[in-house]
Amino acid sequence: METNMLRWTAGIKRGDRTTNEKIQERFGIAPIANKLRETRLTWYGHVLRANEDTKDTICKVGLDLEVKGKRLKGRPKQRWLDTLHADLEHVDVHPDQAPHRAKWRQKIRKADSATKRD
Question: Where along the chain do its domains lie?
């Protein structure tokens, strides 16, 4: 949807065979995957900082929830924590750094005009 609007704005048709990456680069927009990663890590940092001495906040209970039972056959489904750990590894940040909000935000933010702050 987003790329279609950018194509329309730039007057680029599908037949022009211009890649989405080139269009995003032209407009200075970060890829959606980076935006999603940044949002997930922002939320995760918020959960880790929320009442650090309390283990029973709703956010932390939901984060640590283990579902009982057997999984279906085939490829295992991607779990939320697996995605978070991959995101942490991608931006090279450790959960122990979450209490330092300024450092945390600096590490997880990508250069994007929509998320740049002074």
Answer: 1-30, 32-118
